[in-house]
Amino acid sequence: MSAFQAFPFPQRFSTYSSESFIFRRSSGGYVFESMGQQLLDVLKRVVTIFVLLLQIAVVGAITWFLWIVYNDTRLQSRFEREGRSIRVHIDDVSYAQRSWKDFLGNSVYITFHYNQNHYQARYVQDTSYVSRGAYTTLLYLADLDSFRQPDPEPPHPRMHRTSRLVKWTVVNDVTTENKVLGGLIVAASVLFFLSVSLINYLVPVPLLQTIGKGIVVVAWVGLSVFLTYDTVEQYNYWNRLRSGGQPAQVTILSTDKVSKSGGRSRHGRSSFRTYSYRATVRFQRQERVIAISEDDYETARAGDRLNVVYNPALDDLMPAGYSLPMDEYLVPVFVWGMLLVGLWLYTSRSKRRQVSAARA
């Protein structure tokens, strides 16, 4: 048995002659095929398997990391819901790094006593610093007999606020725990898809091929549903802002144009890029960033007055007569169209195969 025959690949890649060359009969005589071409085919297959294994390793590491982050975030959410705020006196502060989270922030470990018991807790010094002898407030969960630092308080309203219409996404309304869970589900789905792809590449299994195609369809449907929901919620928010708004005037400080594919551009145009337009205005002695139309961007200058509608309940404003750009509606339509075209092509090809098999 040659080395090529022992290579664990499917039959069409593993049958090689021990001779230096293979000859095949054709209508014109013999076709000469060198062993080098066979070696190239094997090399391509090995590289493909290696790339798939590398992708599985990377995505697997990301999935594992997200799983750890999700469990930690879920535990923090439980402390926030069920924990009691207790003010403790810090006996000692340790700067030793004991967890992977210590590499992501300026954290220390504080030692203190509560009910004559000795405790330690991790404390992130992003907004405040602690030292020996100081007091701080922690969350205590009796079921776990453990302390945790509470999440930082939401920042006070800034002098520079941005309208939700500038960079709209419903993801901003999702809790951190659910955001991490969504990322974990996506990463796990990709990992499963890559694993199925590797198995199908080594040993084709019709059932796994069907499952892989089903995963692609489900993922595409999920993306289409999310984009549709996001667009509907954006329209509802715009409608609430418009219907409940009060007439007002603002002073334009500056205008800007940003490519939706990334990158900022104050000059120049491209027929292959779409832009969002925004303006920094002064309203009630605050600087705010609001969405504006292309016409407002072309005509407005610094120092001009702009008529807006302000909704106190939403604490947001937009130019009077502002409408959502048409491309906001076209994105979900395009994604649904791609899905329908793909399904139509797949079913058409399946029917042609069935017809060909029946004729044969």
Can you put this structure into words, describing what you see?
With 360 residues, the chain is an alpha+beta fold. Among the domains are: 80-148, OB fold (Dihydrolipoamide Acetyltransferase, E2P), CATH 2.40.50; 245-325, OB fold (Dihydrolipoamide Acetyltransferase, E2P). It has 7 helices and 13 strands. The strands form 3 sheets. A 6-stranded mixed sheet has the order 8-11-10-9-12-13. A hairpin with a 2-residue loop joins strand 4 (107-114) and strand 5 (117-124). Helix 3 runs antiparallel to helix 4 (176-202) and helix 5 (206-243) runs antiparallel to helix 7. The two termini are 38 Å apart. It comes from Fibrisoma limi BUZ 3. Keywords: Membrane, Transmembrane, Transmembrane helix. This is DUF3592 domain-containing protein. The chain crosses the membrane at residues 46-70, 180-203, 210-229, 329-346.
